[in-house]
Amino acid sequence: MHQTALIHNPRSRLNRRLAVHLPSGLLSASPTNEAELLASLSEYANREVDLLLVSGGDGTLRDVVSALPRAYGQVPLPAIALLAAGNANLVAADVGACASQRDALSRLTTAAAQGRWRRDVVRHPIAVQRRGEHPLLGFFMGVGALNRATQYNHDHVSAGGSLSVAITIAASMWRAVRGVGDWAEGDWLSLGIDGAAPRDGRRFLFLASSLQSLMLGLWPFWGSSGPIRYLDVDAYPERLGRSLLPLIRGRPTTAMLESSYHSSGASEIRLKTPGPIIVDGEPYSAADGEFLLSPGPALRFVSP
Fold it and tell me: How much of the chain exceeds pLDDT 90, in percent?
C-alpha cells in the first residue's frame, strides 16, 4: 500500500485560480521557503512516503527534486506524480501529468490505491552544481536568448501552458531576426564539454536538457545522444531567419552545421558566464559564474 503525500504551491499560475479539493487523510504541505520544504520532505521520509504528489509548475518541481536527496538520505526516493499548475509545464509535457482540476488529487490518489498508471517513466534531472553547494536539479536550462525570452514572458505574457510558450517563442524569434535590442549579441560563455578544452565567446543561445521531448513538437537538438542534450549557437548566427525553423525542429541544414550551430549529447558540461543561467524558468546565479552540469539521480514519474 502506497503512503502518499502532497507538496502544493498555492502561488503557481493555475493554483492561484483553483481551489483544489484535498482528499480526506492526505498528508499535505504548502512550504513557502527552502527550509520549510526540506522540513516537510524530511517528515515525509520519516513517514515512509513513497508517492509524492507535486502541485505546481516547473519551478516548484525543480525545488522539490533538489531537496529530495537531502531529505530522504539513504531511503529510496519516492515516485512523483505531477499536477501541472505552472506556466510552461515543460516537464509535465514530457513525463505526463494530471490536469489541474478540482478533483485532480482524488483521481491521483485513486490511481495510486489501484496501482494503475497510464505512464510510468524514469528521468534523470541535470545536477547544476555551484562551488561548495548542494546541486540544483533541473530539466531545462540555458543562457543567451533564453534569458531574454524568460524576461519577456514574465513582463508581457499573461497566458499559461503551451500558449505561453508559443507566444514567447514567436516574439523572441521576431526580435532576434529583426535585431531588436541586444537579442542577437547573446551572452559571453565559456563552455567545456566532457573534459575538452573550453570554447570561449559570445553565444546567441545555449540550451541543455535531460528531457526526451518538449511541447509543441519542439526539439532543438541533434547529433550524438547522451544524458544531457545541448544546443550551442554562436552570437550573431549566420542566416538566422532561414535557420529558425530547422533549428527548433532539430533538423539543421548543411550550411548551419558548417557555421554557427552546434548540438550533441554530453555527460558533463562546465560553463562559466558573468550573468545568471535560466533553470526551469527562473534565473540562477553563481558568485564566480561557474557551473558544473552532470546527470542527477534517477526519478520515477507516474501519471493516471
Answer: 66
